[in-house]
Design a protein that fits this description.
Layout: E1 12-22, E2 28-29, E3 36-37, H1 43-47, E4 73-74, E5 82-95, H2 102-115, E6 121-125, H3 131-141, E7 142-143, E8 148-152, H4 165-178, E9 184-188, E10 191-194, E11 199-200, E12 209-210, E13 218-220, E14 224-226, E15 241-242, E16 250-254, H5 261-267, E17 274-279, H6 290-301, E18 305-310, H7 330-334, H8 339-358, E19 362-363, H9 369-381, H10 387-394, H11 420-427, H12 433-454, H13 457-465, H14 480-486, H15 490-498, H16 513-519
Parallel strand pairs: 1-5, 1-6, 6-8, 8-9, 16-17, 17-18, 18-19
Antiparallel strand pairs: 2-3, 4-5, 7-15, 9-10, 10-13, 11-12, 13-14
The structure holds aspartic acid (ASP).
Length: 524
């Protein structure tokens, strides 16, 4: 498996489980009436065999290819030298995604849980209409995820001669089998989006999905470009697990001019426990409508968690949570063109936004409505949390669903003058930031592999502080975690895991760090 490196030429095999849930992609056409029939069991499984890029009918399966519960299928070897062996699991009910419910999300999550150790990655075939909701929900339900989970579908069914289904399916299989991107993502029209940042933006376009507040995680053109800096690192030492319970007592409410108190009151009445409020602009509400604000106040006092996100396609709702007051910050100044504008903006927004936060409504940052709803539903169903802990988690970034400000050029702060990198920089008389960055990216992964193999925590820390990925492999595909595991350096291994090292990375021989540790008789 490849991670933070370009695809290799080694002739290896990856196992992927396709989970089929329904959607346009699997619709067939009635030959007489020419009407599309709803997706049915068994159809996709057979249809896929008619596409040479998805199904190699001549491949002879060997013993190691056997999948216990699924008929194994194989793609031809990819241009990166990898054979994808895949099985297809159909959900018990295959649906148009407009009919999806929270129990369907749970069923998908349970299938992934059941087969987590048996496959390298997962592709969920899904209708496009509610794909972003499912992707957002799964991103929370799959806890401590260390493997790639990709949702895909199509605007034109597989049964049509011209379709986007083959491209989307193949691209998803390639991403899930060639890269470890430990996230729930959506692959559509050559772009890989973080699932909980995505939304269906166009209903009659092949380019149907977008993630307005975040650029794609990866793009498939003539080459595959992965934006590794955006890919989430899994930093937990806890094992993968699934929270299949979601709270269904949640609503989504779009503010509109003239909304009545009684509408609001009924909408938020018990048993509702959480609400996503889509407000105006940067989180604004009607400050002159005291009676409406009073309803919000009462609802929040009753313990309902209300989270404020914007109706705008891009932008953020940011209020300093601790005080419940709006903070005048960088984000605001970005919207302002002049000092007078800043003063006006500050004055108006301060008043308008405070009314919602003062009523007890939480700021949702730049979350999509889909992500906010899924997060709320997930947190409300989480046991052993106080309501205050839930509120705190709601405004905290859990799965990359909201943008977190980082101070600029943080890596420059750690250019320790004694470090190996500094010595190379001064020996080569390099001075431009661009050259320093290029050197950093070339040298530090080697330094890190070396430090991991020797168990040198100080050097590992230094490299991590310089924002170097802990997953860059050496010429043999061995990551720092392989080297630490191989030499039995427990502290170094733990440090790497806490800083985003991927446990499932395989080296050129197909071994994971755990296999290396066992081979060398070390138990971490
Ligand atoms: N209505 C379909 C669905 O979401 C649309 C599609 O798949 O494109 O299941």
């Amino acid at each position: 498996m490849l991670r933070r490196s370009s695809v290799s030429n080694s002739n290896m095999v990856s196992r992927i489980l396709i989970i089929y849930t329904g959607g346009t992609i699997g619709m067939s056409r009635n030959p007489e009436t020419k009407a599309y029939a709803a997706p049915e069991h068994g159809y996709l499984k057979e249809k896929i065999k008619t596409f040479a890029s998805l199904y190699d009918s001549e491949y002879e399966f060997c013993e190691g290819d056997i999948l216990t519960d699924h008929e194994p299928r194989a793609t031809p070897i990819t241009m990166y030298g990898r054979r994808i062996i895949y099985g297809i699991e159909e959900l018990e009910t295959i649906v148009d995604s407009a009919n999806m419910s929270m129990s369907d999300w749970a069923n998908i999550a349970k299938v992934i849980e059941k087969y987590y150790t048996k496959f390298d990655g997962f592709v969920v075939v899904h209708g496009t209409d509610t794909m972003s909701y499912t992707a957002s929900a799964l991103s929370f339900m799959l806890e401590n995820l260390g493997k790639t989970v990709i949702l895909t579908g199509s605007q034109i069914p597989l049964c049509e001669q011209r379709n986007d289904a083959v491209n989307n399916l193949l691209g998803s299989l390639i991403f899930a089998s060639h890269f470890i991107i430990p996230e729930v993502a959506i692959y559509f029209n050559n772009k890989l989006f973080r699932g909980n940042r995505s939304l269906k933006a166009k209903c009659e376009d092949i380019d149907a999905f977008d993630s307005p507040n975040m650029s794609p995680l990866a793009v498939m053109g003539t080459h595959i470009t992965v934006n590794w800096k955006s890919v989430a690192d899994s930093t937990s030492l806890l094992p993968f697990c699934v929270q299949s319970d979601m709270c269904s007592e949640v609503v989504m409410l779009r503010l509109f001019p003239g909304m009545t108190c009684s509408t609001l009151h009924h909408f938020l009445a018990p048993p509702i426990k959480g609400a996503v409020l889509l407000s105006y602009g940067a989180g604004n509400g009607p400050d002159a409508r005291e009676e409406l604000l009073e309803v919000f106040r009462q609802v929040c006092m009753r313990g309902v968690i209300v989270v404020n996100i914007t109706q705008c396609l891009t932008g953020t709702v940011s209020v300093e949570y601790n005080t419940g007051k709006r903070r005048w910050d960088l984000q605001d100044s970005l919207h302002c063109k002049s000092l007078t504008h800043i003063k006006q903006y500050k004055k108006s927004n301060l008043t308008l936004t405070n009314v919602l936060s003062d009523a007890g409504i939480l700021p949702g940052g730049d979350m999509t409505a889909e992500a906010a709803l899924a997060k709320l539903s997930y947190l409300l169903a989480k046991k052993n949390l106080t309501q205050e802990q839930r509120r705190q988690m709601m405004v905290t970034n859990l799965r990359g669903e909201m943008t977190v400000e980082v101070s600029p050029n943080v890596s420059d702060l750690f250019l320790d003058s004694d470090s190996y990198l500094s010595k190379v920089i001064s020996a080569l008389e390099v001075s431009s930031q661009k050259e320093i960055q290029a050197l950093r990216e070339a040298i530090l992964p080697t330094v890190m592999c070396n430090a991991a193999g020797l168990g040198k925590l100080d050097k590992l820390t230094e490299a991590v502080q310089q924002c170097v990925s802990v997953n860059k492999a050496d010429y043999d595909g061995r990551t720092p975690l392989h080297l630490a595991a191989c030499e039995g350096h427990c502290e170094a291994a733990e440090f790497l895991l806490k800083n985003g090292a991927i446990v499932h990375c395989k080296d050129r021989a197909g071994n994971t760090p755990l296999v290396d540790a066992i081979k060398n008789k070390f138990v971490l």
